[in-house]
Structure prediction request, 124 residues.
Amino acid sequence: MARFTIAFGIILILLAVTGFVATGSAHPTALIPAVLGLLFVLFGALANTADSKKRMLWMHISVTVALLGFLSMIPADIAAYRLSHGASYPYPAAILEKAAMSLLCLIYVLFCIRSFINARVAKA
Prediction:
C-alpha cells in the first residue's frame, strides 16, 4: 500500500497542476491538492519500510488524512451536482477540481479499508 499511497499523491499533484493550467495559471489556490499530494508521497515513503509498526502507523495516518480530505469536500460534491444540473457558479473549474479531489480521496479510503481488512484476515 505504500507504493499505492505514493501513486495517489502523484495523481493529486497532477490534478492540481492540471487545474492550475486550466484556469490560466491565475489562481494559485488550484494548487492546494498538490500540497495534499506531497503529504501522501511523504506518507508513502515513510510507510515503505520493513518495520510493520511504522508502516501501519503511516498508513493509518494517510487514510485519516484522506478521509478528512473527502469529508471536507462534501460541499464541493453538492455544488458539482448542482453545477451539472444547470446551476451557475463564479468559478466552476474550482468546484470540479474539488469534487475530483473528493472522489479520489474516497477511492483511496476504500482501497485502504480493503487492505486493512485483508491484513487483519491474513493475521488470523
Q: What stands out?
A: The chain has one domain: 2-123. The CA atoms of residues 111 and 117 lie 10 Å apart. The helical segments are 2-22, 32-47, 52-72, 74-84, 92-123.
